[in-house]
């Protein structure tokens, strides 16, 4: 494979990892007040992402850093074009990170309320805005941005609820399952509209044969999301999470498939790309380092694999 | 005021603010890892209490470093898209490597450390904090290599109006970077040392105030608890100070070759001068010192701002190639005076708290006035650090990439004044509020002091060292995890 294509795929992979992993972080952050009735349960819910959310966020940092290095014009164009939404994403990530880190360290319950609010707002803003930004990029319309935002927000909530169901036991577990079912009422229709918008962004719907792979991914993403809901209903927490994660991954693959070969209007991947030397040397370093990163991140999930219970105080 | 001015202000505000937290992450992380290592090796309970106490302060600060760092990576593309397109091929690589090789390591292993107290074998748990701090220090190297390239671009060629990297190794071993990394990382350890000194000083004073006659043995024991971290921080600050001074000297010599305008501005030297003097304050001149510092030869010619301006105009076309002279001049002096006074304090402290002769003699108590000075000196190293950055980055103006790209040509053309104004206002307000919150949080935790460690079975270091793998349950019984899981 030619290096420019390869690096586009690498960046798509990094964004996909980010959406799958931070997707449930955002959902958990938004749902924490809904799923918990007291402080012990709140800790239980947020504890599911406690050890991993910061590492998950680095997928974004790496994706954006890789864009900067491999496709400077794409990086610069995307961030300066969506200036104010990106500013709000940053505000969200700032207050969420601080809220998550500080809530265990404040001394008064009233300060914890501020932290919870920061986590909620800071999870909701990026969860909505990433969908809105990419939908606007595809369709260049405010309505599409709204649909895209509602889609990504609701899917994050669903994905987060499924994750909490997988990682907890007791009353929180039951509540998380019910919340996942309830959220699906919004997430599934939003997914149908937003995901079918991805392949149809470049070619008319009637002309679906022009992009069969995009349609396959988009339809598979819808099916996987529906399967996630059904599996949650059946109480198969692990499979349900696999399904929602796959759905987000398939949706992201479809998105980046639609962005190929012009990730910004009027800018092709080839025009945006760095030189072959930079791409080549980064390829070698990336190929050596990435297995280690995946290995130790995977190990973290293994260390914290047990379901959490609410602490009896 | 146009979008360029605001974009520059925004970069200044967000970067200086980010760098209030980064040095503590770099230096304090190593300090905490050292304390935990001491606990691991000796089994002494007060090391564990100190690890958790300073660990908490570290984490409160770490969060701020992380979240403000995200803004750094994004704002090149947001406000400086022309710059990003010009440099991305070269400058983007260390940023991507920083994320891939350093940030993943730092954040993943810190998560394991925070939540792994009762989940991991003791030795593995100790390894996680070391992995995290290695990540922090590695990230400093990559970002400083990227920054050094702006001042002294190497390993590239310009093709079609864009910089193209030709040699990554040259970028990563840029002489400017090799001088700058020890200088900045060393300064980070001075900042962290000064922070620990202030905390220890405060705790010593607080505990003496609670027990003025120092009669209760418990209390005396508590005061003695601070001797170890205090001495460790004094040693750390003194050694780091020597590194900062040495690498600063290297940097001055590189400035002479690579960025003569910055050097001239730092001294306020207007014309090329042989045997140039150095003025610690305006009006006082030490003859030939600047020439000596810049080249090692007291008679050498050091360039002056006006002569350089004439030369640059000839070379690059008409423009003002001088940075803001008073800011560069004064930030240079503030950096040296504030930084070196912190290091001086550490040397003085080491002398005053030195051990008495004879093994049985009790150690010298920290004089109360010294503890007070340590508290008051808290801002000094940070002010020095910020001044150093102002000298370095304002002194680089009007270039973003020395000799290649002007700051005025770097800004995003499509971003309006209003957009930059909104984001500048949002970040400034948010950062101000968070700074206040962090300060309150840190002060509260310092006032509360270390938490007692729950009673546990007596244990000798050798037995704990040998049974690491199987002691997970013991660890659960012994330790209260920071959070539940």
TrEMBL record, chain A:
This protein's record includes keyword Magnesium: no
Compartments (UniProt record): Cell membrane
GO molecular function: electron transfer activity; metal ion binding; oxidoreductase activity, acting on diphenols and related substances as donors, oxygen as acceptor
GO CC annotations, alphabetized: cytochrome complex; plasma membrane
Entry keyword set: Cell membrane, Electron transport, Heme, Iron, Membrane, Metal-binding, Transmembrane, Transmembrane helix, Transport
Residues that span the membrane, as ranges: 6-35, 56-76, 82-102, 114-135, 141-166, 178-201, 213-233, 240-261, 281-304
Membrane topology: Multi-pass membrane protein
Protein name according to UniProt: Cytochrome D ubiquinol oxydase CydB
Originating species: Streptosporangium carneum
TrEMBL record, chain B:
Disordered: annotated span: 450-485
BP-aspect Gene Ontology terms: aerobic electron transport chain
Cellular compartments annotated: Cell membrane
Keywords from the UniProt entry: Cell membrane, Electron transport, Heme, Iron, Membrane, Metal-binding, Transmembrane, Transmembrane helix, Transport
InterPro entries (alphabetical): Cyt-d_ubiquinol_oxidase_su_1
GO MF annotation list: electron transfer activity; heme binding; metal ion binding; oxidoreductase activity, acting on diphenols and related substances as donors, oxygen as acceptor
Membrane topology according to the record: Multi-pass membrane protein
Superkingdom of origin organism: Bacteria
Name of one Pfam family that matches: Cyt_bd_oxida_I
TM spans (from-to): 15-33, 53-71, 91-115, 127-150, 184-205, 226-245, 330-352, 373-391, 420-443
Any one annotated GO CC term: cytochrome complex
Family from the record: Belongs to the cytochrome ubiquinol oxidase subunit 1 family.
PANTHER family found in the cross-reference section: CYTOCHROME BD UBIQUINOL OXIDASE SUBUNIT 1, CYTOCHROME D UBIQUINOL OXIDASE
Stated name of the protein: Cytochrome ubiquinol oxidase subunit I
